[in-house]
Amino acid sequence: MFYRRQAFMTVVAAATLAAGAAFAQPDGKALFGQNCSACHQANGKGIHGAFPALAGDLFVAGPPETVASVVLNGRGGMPTFGKDLSNEDIAAILTYVRGSWGNHAGPLSPKMIESARNPGNRQDDALKMQAH
Amino acid sequence: MTSSLDSLSRRAFIERLGGVGGTGLVMAGMSALGFGIESRAATPPSLSGGGGKKIVVLGSGVAGLTSAYELSKAGYDVTLLEARDRIGGRSYTARKGTKLTELGGEAQTCAFDEGHYINPGPWRIPYHHRGYLHYAKTFEVPMELFNNDNDHSYVYFAKGSGPLAGKAIRKQEIAADTRGYATEMLAKQVNQGALDQDFSKGDKELFLSYLRSEGYLTGKDFKYIGSEGRGWAVDRGAGLNPGVPSTPYALSDILQSDTWATLKSVSDFDQQRTMFQPVGGMDQLPAGFVRHLKPTIIHKSHVVEKISQDADKVQVHYVDGKGHRGVVTADYCICTIPLSVLRGIDIQVSDPFKKAVSGVSYAPVGKIGIQMKRRFWEEDHAIYGGHVYFDNPDIGSIALPSTGWLGNKGVLLGYYQFGANAAKISAKRLAERQAFAVAEGQKVFPQYAENAESAFSIAWHRVQYNLGGWAEWNTDNRRDSYPILNEPDGRIYLAGEHLSYLTGWQEGGIESAWQQIGKLHKRVHA
């Protein structure tokens, strides 16, 4: 049931963290494909009027903390990924996005993602998401 | 609650609520605190004397249809523009021939057999959604019960540990055992006097009686040894078949499995029995509205490009299905376009209003309907409707159909996921979504994969003219943006589920429309 979401997510995140530590670095391109490409598209061009392009986007190339914050906390139609993806995964995804499709912004480290995590209002609200 | 309110004074408390949540919260608070003011309307506002004033309604979901129906009944001259070539918005039913292409997705045509369908959007109507039921009754839309809770259904939790993890367990077994053990432990403590200071005279015995009844406890020592309600090892029958009682699971096994998370003392208000659904699909209520609207009112395949206004008029610029551009000029506009879409439309409103429109999140939501060759959940598992709960949020739940009982085939809901999980599953190709859903369902029902015939899936965040399942307000924008959007900007009124505390429900759209057309009518007659 959905009110148990937080606890399960914690378990998942812990498992992912453990796996990340023990095995190879997460594959940013594959993770982008799984989690982001439904909207932003595999070519990073988004869909005009619906999903923003990431290719050539100034925001994406901007300050790491701000970019990480959007992935962690969501914005507009974008869901929060803070509870679903580990710091390692998000760092790998954003490093891929910032270095693909003509983007030339620097990589992000898991440590930077951790410092951008802010258990604020928005995340708590997102966890309340209920079935209808 | 009562004591803190006494010291604060109820009136002051209610005024504080108003500061946080606007009028709606004040009304709800007043009702809850016994002021006798209903927060919710049960019938539409009684309007008359529209006098031919021209209203343009944007969107033909339940909010738009409610507005168009009530306003034209009151004598307004209504024009309704709908972007799609069908009416109903999210009140939508996929059946044989239904076509959907998500943004960035493949073309999809529903291939279910005649008479079978899935409601990819809203699908269940709580007993207290009186606006919806009002229109169902008015338009004589047949309704049937929606089974929202099934004791005999399964819970499939794989993330816990112990022997019950990763197994389909009957919900009735978990409920009986968890509550049996919990009440047994509490009853023993109370009986031994551990909580004597918490009871006034006589209450201790009454409380023990309650625990015995709640948990099916037996004997002087309040022991839980199982209960008939958890089901039989061998069922009772005729003749010399008295049945064999089932054996409870170990408390530790239940705790470690996490399956107890499906239990609550009472369902959330929105999820309680009794629930309804329209016979034949959710699109039957919009069809009821259409039967009672003049055919000239609704203009399908009219996509809004721009909304402008001046002191006297509002103008809606559209492009129709043939690429022709045109303008509807009206005295007022009721705009029910989801905010997720409206923020991409050129609309002439104040900056705070525009900012409020663009700040609201919309929920990514995914569902899949799968047609099964036979109703194995009924025939082999004795499950009639209800849900199978998963702790895998990529599935959420499987819902068995509350229609076509004992028939030959059936369409079940194979997953219902939100947020990041919906974003992830929606990245899969259609065939992959189906394969994923079937593989998960197979873990509960051994007959699942061999019976899966065809599927129809939706990811609402990728559906044009929706871009999300429903509005997701957070505390900040409920406080800052919501009150702004509930008031008109010039001649433009917004309505929809997003302007209610019933977001994501049909009822929110209907009651929001009632509220806004009531305001509009009052202004016309001021």
Question: Which SSEs are present, and which pair or pack?
Answer:
The complex is a heterodimer of chains A (132) and B (526).
Chain A: H1 5-22, H2 28-35, H3 37-40, H4 64-73, H5 87-98, H6 110-116, H7 121-127
Chain B: H1 2-8, H2 10-32, E1 54-58, H3 62-73, E2 77-81, E3 94-95, E4 99-101, E5 107-109, E6 117-118, E7 125-126, H4 130-138, E8 143-145, E9 154-157, E10 167-170, H5 171-191, H6 203-215, E11 232-234, E12 244-245, H7 251-257, E13 275-278, H8 284-291, E14 298-299, E15 302-309, E16 314-320, E17 325-330, E18 332-335, H9 339-342, E19 346-347, H10 351-358, E20 361-362, E21 365-372, H11 376-379, E22 386-390, E23 397-400, E24 410-418, H12 419-426, H13 430-442, H14 448-451, E25 452-459, E26 471-472, H15 475-480, H16 482-486, E27 492-494, H17 506-524
Parallel strand pairs in B: 1-2, 1-18, 2-14, 9-22, 15-19, 18-27
Antiparallel strand pairs in B: 3-6, 4-5, 7-13, 8-13, 9-10, 11-12, 15-16, 16-17, 20-26, 21-24, 21-25, 22-23
Helix pairs in contact in B: 3-8, 3-17, 5-6
What count of domains describes the coordinates of chain B? 4
Task: Figure out the total of helices of chain A.
Answer: 7
Which sheet architecture does the biggest sheet of chain B show?
5 strands, parallel
Computed structural class of chain A: mainly alpha
CATH superfamily of chain A: Cytochrome c-like domain
CATH topology of the largest domain in chain B: FAD/NAD(P)-binding domain
Order of SSEs of chain A: HHHHHHH
Radius of gyration of chain A: 15 Å
Based on the structure, what is the oligomeric state of the protein chains?
heterodimer
Strand content of chain B: 15-25%
Largest sheet of chain A: none
**Strand tally of chain B:** 27
- What is the CATH fold-level name of chain A? Cytochrome Bc1 Complex, Chain D, domain 2
Report on the architecture of this protein.
- The complex is a heterodimer of chains A (132) and B (526).
- Chain A is mostly helical.
- Chain A contains seven helices and no strands.
- Chain A is globular, with a radius of gyration of 15 Å.
- Chain B contains 17 helices and 27 strands.
- Chain B is an alpha/beta fold.
- Chain B is 33% helix and 21% strand.
- Chain B folds into four domains: 2-32, no CATH class; 54-88 and 284-360 and 474-524, 3-Layer(bba) Sandwich (FAD/NAD(P)-binding domain), CATH 3.50.50.60; 94-121 and 364-462, Polyamine Oxidase, Chain A, domain 2 (Alpha-Beta Complex), CATH 3.90.660.10; 171-266, de novo design (two linked rop proteins) (Up-down Bundle), CATH 1.20.1440.240.
- The chains are: A mainly alpha (132), B alpha/beta (526).
- At the A-B interface, helix 1, helix 2, helix 3 and helix 7 of A face strand 20 and helix 12 of B.
